[in-house]
Specification:
Strand content: under 5%
Distance between the termini: 33 Å
CATH class: Mainly Alpha
Structural class: mainly alpha
CATH architecture: Up-down Bundle
Radius of gyration: 20 Å
Number of strands: 0
Oligomer: single chain
Largest sheet: none
CATH topology: Growth Hormone, Chain: A
Order of helices and strands: HHHHHHHHHHHHHH
Shape: globular
Number of domains: 1
Length: 405
């Protein structure tokens, strides 16, 4: 196994382990605190700092990675996740809203340091000009991460049912500590360091393509989380009387399938890599799905329509996300890749923050249907922003200009 492939495997494995705990912790918090009597909006607010600090982390993390190296920032992310889990091991009487929000803030920082580091690494490990290989490696990393996050949802629900909240959190903290020790011993430390010292103004992208992709990503992920984060699990438990394990299993299956489609996107797309126009067509096709589900539920259709519709949404959303992830990595500058990728995932975190808050507020005020209508509107905005994106020629030109910097 050559060095690049070995490092890619190590980065991906470390990211997988983190992702399992991230998905499990989210499900633990949603189900445990809803069981304690928190309203949907209060549950959503527990994740406010998780998403808010993710925005800051992606922006500052890109600068940090350019100075310290991508694998160093990944190690920091693993350590912060362990600390966040440890904070939740206090006596249950001390688990106030402020304390849980603080722990979630650390977890949000950890998550986005890991994601930015892992995805930026791929740009540097794939030889220049091998765009098919870049599409495959980005798709595998992104798809497998989401499949593992789905498994984490099920793991969190199962651990809550068997070990209780504190037992589940303690087991995850111990396992992740072993992963961090292994990562410290095996990953290169210099990957992603820039020859120049990036300044604060370098955090803001000067690329029109990166800015457009980032804006589209903001609305795309807001469209997913507006129904997925709080509204759907609470609806399944409170309205359909599903058990914790059933809710976790369904959400896990959704995210695992979504991740599988992402990982398979290069094969589903065929021999050619997708052009920027694919973002437009795939986006408007995706927007039709939540609108159709909302219409069906409004006309008295039962939960089967919701389940089938959301499975179809997962397939379409996965293809959209895979194409987006490929194009941002391709358009990112070669020297200081973490700066552009960090900026892009700052927008991603902003969209998740918007979707998370809207998910609790809209569901509490007007039910699941309102969340689905807003989802359709947000996807439509994302597709519109993707109209006229530059193609491959500008990507290579941007890399050349950045290397001169």
């Amino acid at each position: 196994m050559d060095r690049a492939l070995r490092q890619y495997a190590l980065v991906t494995g470390s990211y997988w382990a983190f992702t399992l705990t991230d998905g499990a912790l989210r499900m633990l918090v949603v189900l445990h605190f809803h069981q304690l009597g928190y309203t949907p909006l209060q549950v959503a607010m527990l994740f406010l700092f998780y998403e808010l600090f993710g925005i800051v982390t992606n922006l500052i993390g890109g600068l940090l990675a350019a100075r310290l190296g991508l694998n160093t920032t990944q190690h920091i992310g693993l350590g912060l996740q362990i600390l966040a889990l440890t904070m939740l091991l206090v006596d249950p009487a001390l688990l106030t809203v402020a304390w849980v929000m603080a722990a979630q803030a650390l977890s949000g920082i950890a998550k986005d340091l890991n994601k930015m580091s892992a995805k930026s690494s791929v740009k540097l490990l794939v030889p220049e000009g091998r765009q098919g290989q870049l599409f495959r490696w980005v798709a595998v990393l992104t798809g497998s991460k989401n499949a593992l996050k789905g498994a984490g949802f099920f793991l969190g629900a199962a651990l809550l049912a068997t070990l209780g909240f504190r037992g589940a959190v303690g087991a995850m903290a111990a396992a992740l500590t072993l992963v961090l020790l292994g990562a410290l011993l095996t990953l290169d430390t210099g990957l992603g360091k820039t020859a120049f010292k990036p300044r604060f103004r370098d955090l803001l992208s000067g690329s029109a393509a990166v800015n457009r992709l980032s804006a589209a990503r903001f609305f795309l992920f807001g469209a997913r989380d507006v129904w997925f984060v709080v509204a759907l699990p609470v609806f399944l438990q409170a309205e359909l009387d599903w058990s914790f394990t059933a809710v976790g299993a369904f959400l896990a299956a959704w995210v695992i399938g979504y991740g599988g489609v992402q990982a398979a996107a290069p094969r589903l797309w065929g021999a050619r890599t997708p052009n920027p126009g694919a973002l437009v067509g795939a986006g408007f096709a995706l927007a039709a799905l939540p609108a159709g589900i909302a219409l069906a539920l409004g006309h008295g259709q039962d939960a089967r329509v919701l389940v089938v519709g959301l499975l179809a949404f997962g397939v379409a959303f996965a293809l959209n996300s895979a194409i987006h992830s490929y194009w941002i990595v391709r358009h990112a500058r070669a020297e200081g890749v973490s700066l552009d990728v960090g900026f892009y995932y700052m927008a991603n975190a902003g969209g998740r923050l918007l979707g998370t808050v809207l998910s609790g507020w809209l569901y509490q005020a007007a039910g699941l249907g309102s969340c689905l209508w807003v989802s359709a509107a947000l996807v439509s905005i994302a597709a519109t922003l993707s109209v006229g994106l530059p193609g491959a020629g500008s990507a290579s030109g941007r890399d050349t200009a950045s290397a001169a910097h």
